Amino acid sequence: MSSGIMQRTNITDSATPGSVTPHPAVNLVWLAPFLLALAWFWANILAVKWLLSSFIEIPTLYKIVIGFLIVALVVRSSRNSDRPPGFSPNFVLRRDPLLLMLGAGIFSIALQYIIDIKQVTVLLFILGTYGLCGLFGEPNFWRKNLPVAGLLACILPFNSQLNSGLGLPARVLTAQVVEQLLSLLHIGAISSYDIIVLENGIAHVDVPCSGIKTLLVGTLFLLAATWLEGRKLSLKWLAVCAANFLMLVSANALRVAVLVLVAQVFQQPTYAEMLHVPLGIVGLIGACFLSWLMLQKVPKFHETKEIDFNSQRDLEILKNQPLAKPGLIVAVAVLGAISQLYHVESEKLAIAPLKFLDPIVSESIPLNPSEEKFFGNYPGTQTQKIRFVAGNLRGSMLTVASTSWQTYHAPELCFVASGIPVNRIEKKQLTPSVTARWLSLKNNQLSAAYWLQSAHITTDNFMSRIGSDLTHNNHNWVLVSILFDSSLQAENYEVKKFASNVYDTVKESLQGEMNEN
Questions:
Q1: In which region does residue 247 sit, left (phi positive, over 0), alpha (psi from -120 to 50) or beta (all else)?
Q2: Considering all CA atoms of the chain, what is the largest pairwise distance in Å, rounded to the nearest integer?
Q3: Would you list the DSSP string of 495-516?
Q4: Is the pLDDT of residue 449 over 90?
Q5: Angle at 290 (CA atoms; ends 185, 275), nearest 5 degrees
Q6: Cα 250 from chain centroid?
Q7: Helix (H) or strand (E) segment spanning residue 142
Q8: Which of 115, 131, 176, 300 has the highest CB neighbour number within 10 Å of its CB?
């Protein structure tokens, strides 16, 4: 009897009639999740590469914060849950995770096509990846810890490269806002690029004054408070987030305005230096405290009683659609193809070298060390520096041709760095086609002018140059900076004629090369 039992137990399943043995190397359950993840990371391959390359440069403090968030997430989830968060390869098309993933992917591609700021692209990639995880994980755990994904999305991209990309527009806007605030106090000031020039001095809105770090810290505080207090992400929370943003920006603008008043109007630069950090801290703490008070009006998150996330069909969309999951994989793959097709790369500069004709006599001169160092960071930039003689006019001129607005910097800063103080800046119409900034330098002993020129428009406003990248119009730009060896008036006939000749030369160079291409 026992031997018969042993014989029957040794019979393999394959020998039993009608039995089916799956091939051990094939697991179709994991095929769809694998294809979806592969399509998602392929669609965001540029963000992945940038994130991996920049992760090495993340300061130690950022790495400690990231590690703390991961540990806190694990500890909090284990304490507040009866069992660890579930995970299933049989993903469910739930509304919120799906909208977050697809919305982040579409918005990222749109931004890459309009204007390529790497940090924003990586931020959207991290949020979209968390949305992808929501298709496989337990819904309560996913919704509760969505603020943590926001924390990581803000910390990872904005590390050592914090002020590249977003820092420049922030400084320019801050300078222009402060200019308007001073005008309300009847204080004459003009902002150009990221500096503010008053009648008795010049104020540089430097990197710490851009407000980017303040905005980042304030946003991290709001996300951390939301997570720790278990607040629900809703329309009310978005209203609090918008109010927090406005308060942080306003506090930074007021801080810069006070510093400009103390340093330049009241001529107390020492006190301005002492107030620089305390004013920033006070503004940040005040904005965060008011945001926390408003956060108390946001309802808390309440978990649903259902634990088995595979049975929560009320959260599933596209019910009973057998082609829904393959369709999602195809849609993400299409997003990847579009991303590869329309990604904005560094295009080659289409401009010929400038060739000045009579009556301008010119000779090339080398860039100084600071100029070589700055423009060396942008290999696609073409610079040309000359000494010129045109009638009674003598001086030097620097032209910077580029396809990226991040290449340009204020000529005023170059003059100040070279030991030439800026006394006054005015907006002047040198010719019908050239609106320029006119500078009085070195106690009115020298004069200078500059403008930005494309094949179709000319402007003295750096924000207009940045805006051209948003519309993809006038891709090639030239910054023309002229320093005269004497004090002149913008209304001088020779100055106007010289400016007209330079404008025509740059225009012919832009249009001629463009037509040739």
A1: alpha
A2: 122
A3: HHHHHHHHHHHHHHHHHHHHHH
A4: yes
A5: 50
A6: 20
A7: helix 139-144
A8: 131
Cα–Cα distance for residue pair 184/493, rounded to 1 Å: 36
Whole-number Å distance between alpha carbons of 477 and 514: 12
Provide the token pair at 58.
């993340």
Cα gap 153→173, rounded to integer Å: 24
Q: Residues 505-512: what's their mean pLDDT?
A: 81
* Burial class of residue 305 (count of CB atoms within 10 Å of its CB; 0-12, 13-18, 19+): exposed
β 446-453/477-484 pair status: antiparallel
The string of pLDDT tens digits covering residues 393-413 is 999 999 888 877 767 777 877
Instruction: Please give the Cα distance from 433 to 190 (Å, whole number).
Output: 22
- At residue 516, does pLDDT exceed 60? no
DSSP-derived 3-state class of residue 35: helix
Asked if residue 154 lies in contact with residue 126, where contact means CB atoms within 8 angstroms, the answer is no
Q: Record the pTM.
A: 0.67
pLDDT value, residue 256: 81
> Which of 8-22, 364-378, 452-466 bottoms out in mean pLDDT, i.e. has the lowest?
8-22
Model pLDDT, residue 416: 73
CA-nearest of 177, 206, 210, 207 to 191 is 177
Burial class of residue 172 (count of CB atoms within 10 Å of its CB; 0-12, 13-18, 19+): buried
Of 63 and 229, the one with more pLDDT: 229
pLDDT in tens, 153-177: 887 766 544 445 566 677 777 777 7
Beta partners for residue 502, in sequence order: none
Percent of the chain with pLDDT over 90: 14
**Chain length of the chain:** 517
- Rounded to whole angstroms, the Cα distance separating 350 from 432 reads 26
What is the token pair recorded at 231? 């607040």
Residue in 44, 162, 138, 43 with CA at minimum distance from that of residue 84: 138
SS3 390: strand
